[in-house]
């Protein structure tokens, strides 16, 4: 490979070597992209399922850890975070059809603010998408450990088995991947709907008795009827990262752009339908799961809150059967976010930000198998480090909570950068063809940025979350060092890079 002027069949920027940002492009020919092709398959229905499926496990486990601060704190935190996600998703609904590349968030930042901003955004999203499946598979193992009564030390076996199975399904092909996504997402929503209806008609719903059974300082109130905000207004901030879990990962939808038949028409519809579905389900699970035994106190430290609810409604034996079905909800998100980290690593690698071998796709199936395996290995490695450091008996609040907050920290930085990308694109590219325009405009992006910044700031300053955020900072430092020394000299004219360098004037094409 050489650097410099391109020729027919060769992808290279104009002559000039290194640009002002210290970036050097490497010339490649068509064979490079021939080895990195994807297949188009998704339509609105598949995109809706991809977005909802990615998030739905957060309605089964993880969100409930925020109840340790009291129901009122979690309630207000959920409202705040829902507003943030409305600002984010409507901004994405405008940007994604205008820049229909697999790069997603990295692509938006790269076009609007340059390669360094693109890489910073890409790393933030990489942290989020690699660690989110790790959180989910931890809660899957928690559910399965309870169902099959296996010892905590057995949990890593569940992790390896589920990663192997669902990475394999994603490698088999995009058609199967999306069929599985639609199926498990519908089943997951069906299980939640059955739970909601069961609570409503059980005669056991008692909001004041159970949802308000936390007193000041976290003390349990046996008769309930406690304060709405037992630990004051500041506790709302402590619940923000857990409220994020009710919506986190719907922003992965733009990563499917190059596998969508008509991203300019279908992407906005899929994103908007997805966030509205999730907001409705989020408030239903918050109120109904918490309004029956064991209430806020019990759920605040549970690894399987939906199973706890089923136990209350139907007893232990039947609850185990229902919980086995409920694992489908966790599987839905696990499967779909594996899809996301595969495409995210693929896009950054295809453009040269990550080592380019990671973007090679399967010769027959056209799936990014190398990226999928690499993301799984990295997620498992982080899990094992935390597991061995904390001990197998540490439980959901330590292992699950640490992983969750690492994923949320990466997400908050990614959201801040995506909000900024939206604002800069509006200013720098006013004539860019936008098939959809956000009704919230710049104001929605600003609100998203402010809430994301507040959430991340609280994670940085609160001792409970600091370890997780420090872990994210260490990974960032390593990856930035790689880009400074190696990566910035090996960039390649992928669709995202070509679109950015031509300032959106070149017609979009997928290699």
Automatic annotation (TrEMBL):
Molecular functions (GO terms): transmembrane transporter activity
Membrane topology: Multi-pass membrane protein
Keywords, in A-Z order: Cell membrane, Membrane, Transmembrane, Transmembrane helix
Organism domain of life: Bacteria
InterPro entries assigned to the protein according to its UniProt record, in alphabetical order: AA/rel_permease1, APC_superfamily
Subcellular location: Cell membrane
GO CC entries: plasma membrane
Membrane-spanning parts: 44-61, 73-95, 116-144, 156-173, 180-201, 232-250, 271-298, 318-341, 370-390, 396-417, 438-458, 464-485
Main localization, broad class: membrane
Keyword Nuclease assigned: no
Protein name: Amino acid permease
Organism of this sequence: Microvirga aerilata
Top-level taxonomy: Bacteria, Pseudomonadati, Pseudomonadota, Alphaproteobacteria, Hyphomicrobiales
